[in-house]
Amino acid sequence: MKGVVSVGLLLALCSLLLAAAPEDKSPLPQYDSRGNLLRPEDYREWMFLSAGYGMNYSPAPGSHEMFTNVFVQRWAYQDFLQSGKWPERTAFVIDERAAQSKGSINQTGHFQTDLMGLAVEVKDSSRSPEKWAYYGFDIDDKSAQAMPKGNPCWTCHEEHAAVEHTFVQFYPTLKPVAKKFGVYDEKREQVTVAK
To answer: What is the DSSP letter of 31?
Structure first.
């Protein structure tokens, strides 16, 4: 009987410890010994926010039209739903893919094909005094260094993002959340020319 009670107490203690364990906040951004961001390999398992096609922030025509798919870690997404704020170590991955219109049975419209590169935005004030840093990965890159201070990505996000440094105006599931928490900058929806 004593053994049964001991096992029962041990199981209860283990359950209590598991329930009190901190929320798993993985994946987190990883860096190499030089401080370069390591390519997030499992980002396609993250939360999908939105896709764009042929988006161009300049009035000049782009060189080619592509799809951009935006992903964020699930834990950061859940935090945003609860507070309207992006927590430290949030990472966004923009998966850039070529577009094709003719293929298989497709008669009209466009579909996604080959990966062309990744753009990654990370909120990590321990590594960047500006809080947000931007990284570009070519197809085979395993790591990338942060773009220098004042880069076009940082400047554009600073001037045009509706919530912190993020383009929530293009994420239809998060826009109402940001509005509910009063963190949505309505004027960022106005059509303007990016610098």
So the answer is: B
